[in-house]
Amino acid sequence: MTAELVRGQNHPLPDTRLEIRVSAGHPVVACVTCSGEQGTVREEWVAHPGVPAVPGVEVPGRAEQSPRFAVDLAAVPAEVQQVNVLLALPEGTGGPDRFGATAAPFLAVSGQDGSEVASFTITGLDSETALVAVELYRRQGAWKVRAVGQGYAGGLAQLLSDQGMAGAAGTAAVIQQAAVPRTHRAEPARLTTAADAAGAAFGPDQPSPADCALSGGLTGPEAAATGTPAQQTPTPDEAPQMPAGPINYAHPRRQSAPPPPAPAAAPAEPGRPAAPVAGDASGWSMEERLYNQVWGMFEDLARTVAAYRSAVEFAESRMDKELDHVLSDPRSRIGSTGDAARAAARAKCEQLTDQARQALDRDLAQLTAESEVVEPALPPAFARWDNPCWHAYRVPMEVPMALRLGDLHLPESPELRIPCLVRLPLERGLWVDSGRSSSDAALAVDEAQLRRLATDSAVALAARLLAVYPPGEFSVHAIDPAGTAAASLAPLVDSGALTGPPAAGAQGVSAVLAKLTERVDLVTMAVRGGAADALPSDLDTGEQLLIVNDFPHGFDDRAVNQLRYLADEGPAVGVHLLMVADREDATAYGPVLDPLWRSLLRVTPVPDDHLADPWVRHAWTYEPLAVPPGSDVLRQVLTRVTEARRSWRR
Amino acid sequence: MTVNMTKGQAISLQKSDGGTLTAVRMGLGWQAAPRRGLFGSRTREVDLDASAVLFADKQPVDVVFFRHLVSDDGSVKHTGDNLVGGAGSGGDDEAILVDLQRVPVHIDQIVFTVNSFTGQTFQEVQNAFCRIVDETNGQELARYTLDGGGQYTAQIMAKVHRAGGGWQMTALGNPANGRTFQDLMPAILPHL
After folding, report:
1. Can you give the pTM of this predicted structure?
2. B-side interface with A, Cβ within 8 Å?
3. Which segments constitute the TerD domain (chain B) (predicted)?
């Protein structure tokens, strides 16, 4: 009957002769220390690869994947109260450098007859490089085993010094050197246990059975040689037989070690705010830090402007009240007292407004300085099209955490642009409003131009999404019933980034919608039923984006319903809408379509103040990201994307 | 230099080095009433709430309390509602941080209040205290012990107000009754 121990649990030992087997999946250094009455370890009581045997204890002579310890508790010195079984990772072998990156070591204690007494799996290790696996200790004259599993990040030296050993660092170095000798031995060392020794056939050069017993014989030089018989067959010219590429069990993306510290700002001159640095926010990666910093700037700008607006509003309302008061006072109607009071009220208002303006200017200067260092440091997904990083664009291997849709600014600071970042994968579809809004910018262009701008910005957004996803994980479909967006869609069509040619006519519309609806249906069912492996093999499980131009032209009622279904259910299973539409065109449908418009994030092809922040609900002006005039960056990026997709499919 | 205030005591505070305060924290700590009877889950929990009201020329402009944790301008922040108090740890269970440098120019007084949301008077709560800390160096400026404070459910703790180019603090410690800061407004106005 095996007792499976957990940390801290103990178990009685039926026998004094024990064998302890360890399987670690990679070579480990095995040592045993014995501690006396006060818990301190004496140097002559340490069994390790350099001294593989001390009275009552025998360990393997080198680092092994499955070391075996032989222990005869009857033979250990009487003053020994406790026998500690230690494991450590060998240094300088190119193997794992911490237990957290390896399989959990397993340890089994068995009696003389080979029956297993107790076992212990040492889990929950991380940066430790040495550990106390179990301890065998005297308890009222009998011996017991306790599962310890205490790891030390500082390695054997720290472990041994924790056990009260003098010269721990030196001993640890000796152990590590002995465990990984310069000449590699092809054959692993074999250990003679008490059971082996007792039943072995004795060769002419073997000592007598009495000497071979653990109680005495293994301390002599012959015994040491028996402990490491493979020393006689060194094969120095053979390449070390490390397993090809040690398996790292750490999760590839999950970081548990703290991330590198954020770049520190240079110390500020006294009386002046510190110079801003990019990435000066919390996060596990530079990308997350920049994301948080952008949101921090967004919030600070919102709050600074809120402070300014409320101060100005207060100043004006106070002035109005005071002027009213002057007006209602009959004494002020004659003479100069009224004029003086009015002038005083105005001066008070101006003074407060000036103060508020100064505070705002101070904060805006600080945020502008921050924006000037953050903007060039942004990765492509967060950057404007004119950022040089788009010219050095390479197809990414991972989905970024967010995507920049445009710029945001407030009327108080039109020069200070805050990136408008949305998290990826998209949680809702996008709607590029080609309708005429009330903004000045929209009034400056005619309707046809506005529609062209809308399709252009939709294509730029689609290109951005394609570019920031790894190859093959994002595909774009387009519906263009009347072919009016052909000129805008040209970059996508020419580079082959679209999945197929833009669907034209009512038939094309319903075919594309039917295909995407079926995909959403299947994936939703599979997710709800927990049967993701039952999906048809030809189903593309990557994210899909559907560009819909000219809605509702070419749409029948069935197609409209399918579109609403895609808007509602699609984002959860990776199907997104990018509508280019004017709400006025669809008024014939009445309020039925209101939920559709509300479910989409509205952006505009020209600057327009329609987005509110989550803190003080200012109306922010959204401005789409324009590709610089004459720049070929969009085509270049799309060409790289399609090239990468082709080579990835191969 | 901690000042242990008594009821109604008003003191003016400045930093010991003569400078003005730049950031203060109003901390509130209390302990739930001891469990009584067989049904331990029906213990009478005490929920005290800290609030800060921002005034401009004696008019309330903004308020920071458990339903509005950050003032619109971002200068006053509540660290979050605590419904049950501490387990006797003695630390702040609720705190309001004020960054005096970022307070909008028209705000000239900030009043801190404490209310018993669950209605127990300060006689019934244990180890309740309220303190004002200079956030820049962690120094406690004033402390008021609330338990044994009589049949009151609220307390107008202190106010920080503009004085010259900087800020000063006056401890008020004025008892009152009310569930949230709204009930206290009539009691606050005389202190402005």
Report:
1. 0.67
2. 56-57, 59, 61-62, 70, 72-75, 102-106
3. 1-179
